[in-house]
Fold this protein.
Amino acid sequence: MSGPRIEVDLRKLRHNARTVVERLKGRGIQVTAVTKAVCGHPSIAQTMLDGGAEGLADARLSNVKRLRQAGLTCPITLIRTPMLSQVDDVVHVCDASYNTEISVIVALAAAALRQNTVHGIILMVEMGDLREGIMPQDVGDIGQQVVDMPGVALKGIGANFGCLSGIAPTAAKMSALSPLANDVEGQCGPFLETVSGGNSANLPWATGGHATGRINDLRIGEAILLGMDPITGDQISGLFRDSFTLVAEVIETDTKTVSPLLGTAEHAPAIIRLLPATLETTRVILALGNQDTDTAGLSMPAGSTLIGATSDHLVIGTTDQKLRVGSDMRFQMNYSALMRAMAAPDVQTSLHNDQPRSQENDAHGPKKHLALV
C-alpha cells in the first residue's frame, strides 16, 4: 500500500476492548465504545463490539451514518448535542442522544413523531469541565419537560470530565452523580436506565476501589484505541499502546544543517546557505504534514528528532543510516494525531490481524452486530 497509512492491529485493539470491559464489568459498569477518533470506521467499531462493548457512541452524524450503511445494527448514541438542522437524521439513525438544550429536544420529539418512533434522551450534566452540560439544580426540571413530551423518552443522565478544562473525575465529584440520578427519578418518575459517569479519564476512579453508586456506563474511546490515560498521557497497564501505527514514506535525504545560516541584509530576502553536516544526524523529509495529522502528537522512533513540519512535509533528524528515499518510517500517535490522521483523505487505513467472524464467538456469545455487505 503506497502513500501515508495507518496500520491497525485489530488483535491488539480487541484485547484492549476486552480488557477494559472485563475490568469494568466487575464494578457493575458497561462500556459504550466511542468511535469518533476513527471516523466511525466500521471494522474498528466491530472489533470494539467483539471485545464486549455494549454499544457505540459518536459525536458526528456522518460517522453514525457510515456505521449504519455498513450494516451495524447495535445501539448507537450521539454524544454531542444534536444540531437543529439534523434532528430528522439523528432520530433516524441514532437510538438516543445526549442533550443540553430543551429547544433541541422539542425538535427531536417532533421528528420522532413524524417517524412514528420514540427517541431516547440522556441529559448531560455540568460537573466542572465547563464544556457542555445542564447545571445540576436544573436537571430535574428539564427532565420533567422531557417526560411530559411525546416522541422522546428520558433514558438517563451523563457527565463529562477531562476534555475542555482537564478536570479529573475525583471520587467526590463522582459520588455527587448518583444522588442526582435519584433526585431526577424522584421528581420525574421514570427509572433512569443509564447513568453515564464519563469517559476514558474515569478509568482510574472506576477501577480504584471507590464506590460506583448508580454509575453503570462509561463512554470509552482513547483507552481502548491507544491504551492511554487522557489526563496523564501514561500507558494503561495491560493495554497495548500500539494498536495504531502511522507509516510515512521518505521522499528526501540530505546533509542540510538543521539550522541553516540566513542572510542578514536588512531589506533583502533571507538567503539560506546550505552547509555540509558534520554530525552523524541525517535530515530526512517525509510525505506527511500538518494537513494529514497533528505532527506534534507523533512519538518519534528511537534516534530520531522532529525538526519541523509544514502542510505536507515532515522534517526529521535521525541517526538511522539505513533510511533511503522510498523507506518507511513508523510513528505512534496521541489521540489528536490519530483523530486527524483518520480524517485525512490522503491517509489510508490498513487492517491487520483480523479473525474470521465465525471465530469471534467468545465468552460474550455470538456476534450479530455487523451484517456483511
